[in-house]
Specification:
- This protein has a 5-stranded parallel sheet. Strands 6-7 form a two-stranded antiparallel sheet.
- The chain has about 180 residues and is α/β, with parallel strands linked by helices.
- Strand 4, helix 5 and strand 5 form a beta-alpha-beta unit.
- The protein folds into 2 domains: about 140 residues, Flavodoxin domain (Rossmann fold); about 35 residues, no CATH class.
- It has 7 helices and 7 strands; from the N terminus they run E-H-E-H-E-H-H-E-H-E-E-H-E-H.
- The structure holds flavin mononucleotide (FMN).
- Flavin mononucleotide binds next to helix 1, strand 4 and helix 6.
Length: about 180
């Protein structure tokens, strides 16, 4: 049985939820699959030998990724190059289908440019707008981003843009990459 570890960075919990859905979809294909927050991974370490493959995902915050995401890639560059087979980026601009293409998504292009680990396989997943859970300043800033991109600006809006069936399909795609090894 092959084994896959999903590493993730999530600020508000949605990327963690996507990781869990992905984990279940990979596990449904007769693989052992677990998930781990990179904060825990950085503190406690990872037994890389335990895993045949690793998938890494992070949410976009203000046009980029949290600095711990880049630090993690820098510190684990070799292990990620050896084991990590895919990277997924979660952002709300990706609610527009064309923004789920690498050539149209500047956040993923930014990751490719700045990360010490350059993933060969990438996936862009639409995230969640959750104004009530965000602080005043974040809420205003994101409403501004949404206004500029014709998105929702109602401060009470909670909209999950994630295509969960597509996340399941991504899980199957990950398993197909394992078979290529
Ligand atoms: C402070 C903050 C800044 C964000 N900035 C962006 C952004 O620049 N572009 C974008 O597409 N989405 C942006 N988002 C949306 C998040 O990527 C989206 O809500 C994602 O689902 C959050 O995942 P999480 O719950 O795992 O943190 C931002 C969200 C927050 C809270």
């Amino acid at each position: 049985m092959k084994s896959v570890l999903i590493l993730y960075f999530s600020r508000g919990g949605h990327t963690a939820r996507i990781s869990r859905h992905l984990m279940r979809s990979i596990a449904a294909e007769q693989c052992r699959c677990e998930m781990m927050d990179i904060k825990e991974a950085s503190k406690e370490g990872i037994d890389w030998d335990e895993w045949d493959a690793v998938v890494f995902g992070a949410c976009v915050l203000y046009g980029t990724y949290d600095k711990t995401v880049f630090e993690f890639c820098e510190q684990n560059k070799q292990q990620l190059s050896d084991k990590a087979i895919s990277f997924f980026s979660v952002n709300v601009v990706a609610r527009k289908p064309e923004k789920r293409q690498l050539e149209n998504n500047k956040y993923l292009q930014k990751f490719m440019a700045l990360s010490a680990w350059k993933p060969k396989d990438v996936k862009i997943i639409a995230g969640k707008v959750d104004y009530p859970s965000w602080g005043w300043l974040d809420k205003q800033m994101i409403r501004l981003i949404m206004k500029m991109t014709d998105g929702p600006t109602d401060p009470k809006a909670v909209i999950d843009y994630t295509d969960w069936d597509d996340v399941s399909a991504y899980g199957k795609h990950i398993v197909s990459l394992l078979d290529e090894d």
